[in-house]
Amino acid sequence: MVRKVTIKDVAALAQTSVTTVSLILNHKGQRFSSETIDRVHKAQVELGYSPDYFAQNMVNKKTRTIAVLVPDINNPFFSEFIQGIEEVAYRENFIPLIYSVGANNQKVDYYLKELIRRNVDGFILAVSGLDINLLAQLSTQQMPYILLDQSEKQHQSDEITVQDLMGGQMATDYLIEHGHRKIGIVLPANSAWNIDQRLLGYREALAAHDINFQDDWLINTELSKKGGYQVTNQVIASGVTAVFAVNDELAIGLYRGFAEHQLNIPENLSIIGYDNVDWCEYVTPKLTTIKQPIFELGQEATRLLLDRIADPDKPIQQRILAVSLIERDSVQPI
Ligand code: RIB
What is the pLDDT of residue 26? Predict the structure, then answer.
C-alpha cells in the first residue's frame, strides 16, 4: 500500500522543522528566509504533499465557508439571489453553505449556533424574525454577518436594503395612472420588514391620489403561488379592478385562480407583481412587475461579507439598491 505523504516528510526533505513547514504552508512564514521558504515549497511539490484540510483549519481558524440563510429556496427569487452569491464566492475561493429555513425561527437559532461552532467565517442573513440577542452575540464574537431582504435592519452590522417603499409606491402609482381606483394588495399577515415597506408605499400612493383605502382591499395569505391561488375568491369578492401582488409568486397563483373561474387577466383584473423573476416573461400575459436587482443583491452581499472577513475593523457598510418598473402585459387601462 502506498504510504500517505505527511508534513514530516516535507520537513525532512526541506531540512527544517514541522512547525516551520506548517507556518510557511499556512502563509504565516514571513519571518523565514526566502531560501527556507523555497526549500519547503520545492519539497512540497516534489513529494506531492497536500495539507489536510482540518489540520490546516486548526492553524488558520478559517474555513473559507460562508453560511446563507434564506426563507424559501423554492422561490426563484432566492435561487437567483444564491446564484449571485455563488458567483462571487467561487471567484474568491469561498464555499457557500445554503439553508432554506421557512418561517421556522427555532431552526434559524439552531443553524446560527451550530454554524458558529463549526467555524464558518460569516453569515448572509435574508430571513425574518432574527433574535436580536443572537445577533448581538454574533457581534460580540466578532462573527461577520450581513442583514438584507426580509431581515429587519439593526444598523449594527453591514446591511443592504432595496428601495421597497419606493417599489410599493411605483407599483400603485402605475395602476392609478392606468385609471384604477379600486386597488387591492395581496401579502402575508405579519409580513417581514421589507414587505411592510411595500405596503407602506401602497398606502402612501393611494393617499397621495385621494383614494380612500378600504379594509377588504387588503388580502392576507402566505407568500407563495399557493397563497395567491387560495385568495382568488376573496380578490373577486372585494370588487377591486387591479391588484398589487407583493411578489411574483402570488401573482402567478392568482393567474391560475382567475383562469379556473374563466376570468381573464388583464381584462377582468389587472395585476402587477414584484421581484421580476425569470418566468415573468413566460406566462400569459407577461407579468408587469417591479424589478429587484436580485442577482446583484447576492453579489453585493457576498462582496460586503468577504470584505468584512478580510478587515473586521472597517466601518459598517450600508448599501441601498434601486428598483425599477418593468412594463409588460398584465395591466390594462380602464
Ligand atoms: O419572492 C420572495 C420575496 O420575498 C421577495 O420579494 C423578496 O424581497 C423576499 O422578501
Answer: 79
